[in-house]
Every structure is written in structure tokens, then in C-alpha cells.
Amino acid sequence: MSEEIKNQSIYLASVDLLRRMLRDGKFDKKMLDCLNRKNAETMGCKIVELM
Questions:
Q1: How far apart are CA 26 and CA 2, in angstroms?
Q2: Where does the chain have alpha helices with state H?
Q3: Would you state the pLDDT for residue 26?
């Protein structure tokens, strides 16, 4: 598995987790959006919106 695909898989798993936290109302959307943006930057991926 290439490093790029590995990073994308990890990032998408983190997006799923952040979406679940948002859906359950456990955290503020603004904070989760910030985490999502930082995760994308760190992993070198295109940002996927949390919705």
C-alpha cells in the first residue's frame, strides 16, 4: 500500500469519527472543523467536509 493511500485511509477514518462526535452532539462543530482541517493538513489530504 502506498503512503498516500495509507494517509488517505487514516484521514477518512478520522473524518468518520469526527462526524460521529458531531452527530452525537459531544463537541462543538467549530472545534471539530478545526480538527478536521488540521488532520487533512497533517496527512496531506484534501479536506472532506463534516456536514
A1: 34
A2: 3-24, 29-43
A3: 87
Region 31-36 average pLDDT: 98
Q: Give this prediction's pTM.
A: 0.90
Residue type, 45: C
C-alpha cell at 46: 484534501
| ∠ Cα 38 39 42 (to 5°) | 85
Asked if 43 contacts 10 with a C-beta cutoff of 8 angstroms, the reply is yes
Distance between CA atoms of 51 and 33, rounded to whole angstroms? 9
Q: Is the pLDDT of residue 31 over 90?
A: yes
